[in-house]
Structures are given as structure tokens and as C-alpha cells.
Amino acid sequence: MRNRYDKLLENVEALVRSLLDQDNISLLVRLNGIRDIINEQVRAGLLAYTMFSPGEAEQTVMTAITKSQEEMRGTVPMFKVRENRAMFESLLASYDEYCDHAVSYLHEQSALGDLQRAFRADLDKFGGLLEQLSLAGINAVQEADDTANAAAMVLLALALTAGVATALFISSNVMRQLGKDPGQLNILAGRVVNGDYDIDDGSRKLGVYGALVEMVGALRKNIDMATQESENAREQSARAQEAMKEAEAAGADARAKRDGMLVVAERLEEVSNVVSSASTELAAQIEQSERGAAEQAARVTETATAMEEMNSTVLEVARNAGNASEVSASTREKAEHGAAVVQEVVASIQGVQEASVALKNDMAALDDNARAISQIMAVISDIADQTNLLALNAAIEAARAGEAGRGFAVVADEVRKLAEKTMASTTDVGNAIKAIQDSAAKSMDQVDLTVGNIEKATELAIRSGDALREIVGMVDDTADQVRGIAAASEQQSASSEEINKSIMQVNTIAGETASAMQEAARAVSELAEQAQVLTGLIRELKNA
Predict the structure, then answer these.
(1) Domains with residue ranges and CATH for the chain
(2) For residues 255 and 112, what is the distance between their CA atoms, to the nearest angstrom?
(3) What is the pTM of this model?
(4) What is the pLDDT of residue 230?
(5) pLDDT value of residue 137
(6) Of 453, 245, 254, 452, nearest to 363 (Cα)?
(7) Mean of the per-residue pLDDT values for the chain?
């Protein structure tokens, strides 16, 4: 759409040049008014309009488009030369096409704004885009500041040059157009060259004197406007640089937190898998111990009648039962310790969840800063448009001055090119800002996903604690059964053969029980070690 606008502007300038040769001032003035509407209302409104603009802004631009089209259609009958009328009608057709694209752009931006408020995305390109935004923003701000300064200096030089040209023009025609005494006109021209633009003494403005007063008034107004726009550009540049620094700092902090979060989250997942595996193994070993203890109790009952003849064997069985009871007590203590560690793990994971929420809030703040930068870039673009408009007005004034204003028109064209370059730079910065907003939204989605994974890890840790508490209950049951075995061993009595068979079975089962309990102890120990690793990971996550 920008290429269409540039082409349209070239056609307008070509038409103005053709009208200069015909001295049709009234038509030039009307064209200048139409051009002001297009630049100040249509073009400026389109550049300032974004997906976040309210509905009133869209209606304002639509009204300006309709008004400009009506003005142009009303101008067609004013062209008396057939070639000029044909050129203007072609220009009107091109402008209608430009307006159609502009309306489509407004509708697309409005629809995009609705989608932007509903969906956000992408994390991977955040770092690179942030650096690109910083470099592009700094370059654009510096370029805008240099352009504004150059525009102010050029306009001041143009004012002085126009004053000298006007003085020469008056001197060559003083005998034909006497607005004042030639000597007085020479003095007034000198005052203009020296920067004194207050030359209106209240007398009648006739001939050269009247033209001089009118032109100096217009030059003075343009210079004041250029100076004000330059000052505004400097202020906006300072604000943009400050916003860039804040965005860079926030981006660096967000990258560090994001990298730490991803690494620790991966290790947390591995630890959770190990904890789950150890818990499953521990449950299987405890179940095996329970079956062995039950079978052992049955065999001990069968050998109750032989206990009197096998006192020594009974004492050995009692000692084995005591050892098994001690192992059960030790296992119970380790299981209780494991449950306490799991509770600490749950508390630490909750702390990680809070840190993730804080990171999400930081990303939202970064998105707000990017929006603020976008608004500042829109202001800079508007300033460039105003500079372009001033250059066009200066070209018209030069056209009115005739041959003496040719040099003034060339300089004004250079100013317009500088303004267009600034507009292109601000467009690039706007695209980079949109990309960073999309990337910031993706980062927020990833943080939400991380929070969900942390909640899942918390649930698994709670389930591990419940399993450990069940293990404690099972160990208590096993200890009771072992104590029952010791009591039953004191009442054993039977024949030697029955006693030997029963005792061999009891010893075998007792060995299996001890082995199973040792496996359970090792599983609990591994679970405790993994819990310690998990605690260290949580500490790293907090530090990140």
C-alpha cells in the first residue's frame, strides 16, 4: 500500500508541475487542500492505526477517505485543458484503488486486533527477535533524531534562501510593480535575510510588497512548525531510547529465568521417574515379605509340639525372629523419614510454581513495554509525515515564486525523501515490535505449561508420601507377625524328624523374609537419596 501512495504522490507532483506553467493559482490551491486532507487525515490516520486502535479511529479514517474522494471528484470540472483533466481522472482512479486497499487494511487490522486479544504464541525466537528489536529500535531512533535535526536546519536554510531570492525578484521588477519605494523594499529584504520576519507595517499590501509580506508570513509559519516538530522528535527519541533500555533489561532477565526453568524441569521429570520406580519396587518387596511371614507362621504352628525337644533350635528361631523385628523397626524408621522428605519436596515444588507465576507476570510486563514502544514509533512516523507535508507546502510556495524558487523546490524534495526514509524505518521497527509481542505471548504459554507440569509433579510426590505411609503400616504388621513367631517358637514340640523338617522350612522362609526386607531397605534408601537430589534441584530452580 505504501508503493501505491508513493506512486500517487509522484502523479500529483507531475500534475502540479504541468499546472505551474499555466499560472492556474486557484486550481493549485485546491489541489494543495486536497493533498493536505490526504496527508494529514488519510495517510496519517492509516499510519497511526494499529490492531489496538479503538473503533472511533477507524471511523475517523473512513470519513477522511470519503471526504477526499468527494473533493477530488468536485475538482474534475475545474480543469480546462484536456490533457490535464485526463491526467487528473487517471490520478482519481489510482486514488480510488488506493482507498479500496486502505479500507481493506483497516478491516484487516481491526480483525487482527480481535484475534490478538484472544490468542498469543511462540517462545523459540524470543531472544533473537529481542536483540533485533533493540538494534532496529536504536538505529531508528537515532535516524529519526538526525532526520529531525536535518529537517530543521534545511528549512531554516530554505527560509534564508527564499528571502534572498525574493529580494532579487523584487529588485528586478520594482519599476513595474511598486508596492513601496524601492529603497524601502531593499531594507525589508535585508531584514528578512537577517532573520527579522516582522516586516508588516500596516500599510496597504500592493504589488511586490504585498507578495513579500504574504510569503514571509508563510515562511515564518513553516519555520515555527518545523522547529516545533524537531523538538517533539527529540523528546520522542529520548522516550524511545529509555523504553528500549527497559525492554533489553527485561528481556535479559526473562531469558535467564526461562533457561534455568527448562533445565531444572527436565531433571525434575527424571527424578520423578526414579522415585516412582523405587516406590513400585518397594511395594513389591513388602508384599513378598508379607507372604513369607504368613507361610512362616503356618509352619511354626505345625512345629509347636516339638519345641520341648528342640530348645536349642527354638532359641535360634527366637533370635532370628528378634533380628527380623529389628530390621522391621529400622525399615519403619526409614519409611517415616522418606515420607517427611516427600512432604518437603511437595513444599519446594509449590515454591517453584509460585516462581513460575511470577515469571509469567514479568512476561506480561514485557508485552506491555513492547506495546508502549509501538505507540512511540507511531508518533515518530506521524512526525515524518508532517515533515513530508511541510516539504510539499514549501514546494508549492517555491512554485508561486517562479524561477527564483527552483532551488527552494529541489531542497524541499530532499527533505521529503528524508521523511520517507524515516517512515520506512519506523515501519520496520513496528514489524519487529509485533514479532516480539508474538514471541512474548508464546513464552507465557510455555510458562503455563511448566506450571501444569509442576502441579503434576506435586501430585506424584503426594502419592509417593501416601505409599510410604502404607509401607509403615505394612512394616508394623510384619513386626507383629515376627513377634508372634517368637512366641510360637517357645511352644514348639514334636518328633525330631518333624522338628527338623519344620525348622528347615522356617529357616528358609526366614532367610527369604530377611532378603526381602533388605531389598525394601535399599529401595527406601534410594528413595531418600532421590528426594535429596530433588531438594537440590528445587534450590537450583529458585536460584535461577
Answers:
(1) 1-119 (1.20.1440), 262-358+451-543 (no CATH)
(2) 28
(3) 0.28
(4) 56
(5) 42
(6) 254
(7) 70
